[in-house]
């Protein structure tokens, strides 16, 4: 049996690997994911939302994100195995008494339109479209020349509003098409440049690089847009990682104090990162080596940041 991960899964797992999301982006992402993915029920006249996925990382991310925006929401994560031959594991997130959360995220299952209170700038539009892709998006492998990316929904009106959202993103010009497929409406585009732009738009920088590298290897064309996207992806990746690290270091410093780490290398690494978010892992390794008079490798720096991330989660009360 072939368990090779698909490119769609690669993109989605990259999206849920980022922990340093602003509350605005996180809420926009959750709003889209719930709007597209949710099944509704009513228990004692209270709304119950059920979210279902086959991907454990997505399930954990959605569950953790809801917990992070508010401890008052009653949620539970469960899993179950299908009874067919493939025995797939399905993960379900139950949100009990969900009306307050739905109101906060401006989710309406009766109306097709998307509220301006949840998408009002490029960051929230990016988050919303990332959530939509997580919920029902798919993309062909970059190894094939048959480029195709789509997001499906059951509501024609909602599909139209979602399509219009692409046009409101100011940093990149995007346009989509809509087609009806059986009982669903599909928002899609087929041009490679559009797919690459979309990956940049939703914050999937690594996937964009993989997609562009595959395109470049296959046809060897000197396309300026591809080179720009690769540069943007590299810069975006470095900047986003640094922002996450700075956020976590500041939280550790506030709750524990950097000076209480009792590890000179980690303490100095924290101060270097706080001073400059543009430094790469190799730059940080070189600065530590020069300051401490010992050899510090890029691998050592990565390991220390993983330790700091684990400490951050522990201080936040988030179980791994």
Q: How do the helices and strands follow one another from N- to C-terminus?
A: HHEEHEEHHEEHEEHHHHHH
CATH class of the largest domain, named Alpha Beta
Instruction: Specify the biggest β-sheet.
Output: 4 strands, antiparallel
Strand content: 15-25%
Number of domains: 2
CATH architectural arrangement of the largest domain: Roll
Helix fraction, binned, reads 40-55%
CATH superfamily of the largest domain: Homing endonucleases
Account of the 3D structure:
This protein is of the alpha+beta class and 320 residues long. The chain has 2 domains: 7-219, Homing endonucleases (Endonuclease I-creI, Roll), CATH 3.10.28.10; 238-316, no CATH class. It is 54% helix and 15% strand. The chain has helices spanning 7-15, 23-37, 56-69, 99-104, 122-136, 156-168, 192-202, 205-219, 224-255, 264-275, 281-292, 298-316; strands spanning 39-43, 46-53, 74-81, 89-96, 137-139, 149-153, 177-181, 184-189.
Key traits:
single chain; four-stranded antiparallel beta sheet; alpha+beta; 12 helices; globular; 320 residues; Endonuclease I-creI
Quick gist of this model?
This protein is α+β, with helices and mostly antiparallel strands. It has helices at 7-15, 23-37, 56-69, 99-104, 122-136, 156-168, 192-202, 205-219, 224-255, 264-275, 281-292, 298-316; strands at 39-43, 46-53, 74-81, 89-96, 137-139, 149-153, 177-181, 184-189.
Summarize the helices and strands and which ones pair or pack.
Blueprint: H1 7-15, H2 23-37, E1 39-43, E2 46-53, H3 56-69, E3 74-81, E4 89-96, H4 99-104, H5 122-136, E5 137-139, E6 149-153, H6 156-168, E7 177-181, E8 184-189, H7 192-202, H8 205-219, H9 224-255, H10 264-275, H11 281-292, H12 298-316
Helix pairs in contact: 2-3, 2-5, 7-8, 7-9, 8-9, 9-12, 10-11, 11-12
């Amino acid at each position: 049996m072939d368990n090779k991960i698909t490119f769609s899964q690669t993109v989605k797992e990259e999206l849920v690997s980022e922990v340093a999301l602003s509350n605005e982006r996180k809420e926009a992402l959750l709003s889209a994911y719930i709007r597209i993915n949710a099944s509704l029920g009513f228990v004692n006249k209270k709304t119950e939302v059920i979210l279902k996925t086959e991907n454990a990382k997505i399930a954990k991310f959605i569950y953790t994100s809801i917990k992070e925006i508010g401890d008052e929401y009653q949620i539970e994560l469960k899993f179950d195995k299908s009874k067919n031959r493939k025995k797939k594991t399905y993960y379900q997130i139950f949100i009990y008494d969900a009306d307050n959360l739905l109101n906060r995220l401006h989710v309406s299952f009766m109306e097709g339109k998307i509220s301006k209170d949840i998408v009002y700038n490029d960051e929230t539009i990016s988050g919303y479209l990332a959530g939509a892709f997580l919920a029902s998006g798919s993309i062909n492998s970059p190894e094939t020349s048959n480029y195709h990316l789509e997001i499906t929904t059951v509501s024609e009106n909602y599909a139209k509003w979602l399509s219009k959202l692409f046009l409101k993103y100011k940093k990149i010009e995007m346009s989509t098409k809509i087609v009806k497929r059986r009982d669903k409406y599909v928002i899609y585009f087929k041009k490679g440049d559009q797919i690459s732009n979309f990956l940049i738009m939703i914050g999937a920088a690594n996937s964009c690089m993989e997609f562009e590298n595959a395109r470049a290897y296959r046809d060897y064309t000197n396309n300026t847009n591809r080179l720009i996207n690769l540069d943007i992806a590299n810069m975006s990746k470095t900047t986003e990682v640094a922002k996450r690290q700075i956020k976590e270091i500041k939280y550790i410093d506030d709750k524990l104090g950097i000076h209480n780490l009792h590890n000179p290398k980690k303490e100095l690494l924290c101060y270097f990162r706080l001073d400059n978010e543009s430094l790469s892992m190799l730059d940080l390794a070189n600065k530590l080596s020069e300051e401490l008079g010992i050899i510090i490798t890029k691998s050592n720096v990565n390991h220390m940041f993983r330790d700091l991330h684990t400490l951050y989660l522990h201080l936040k009360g988030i179980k791994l």
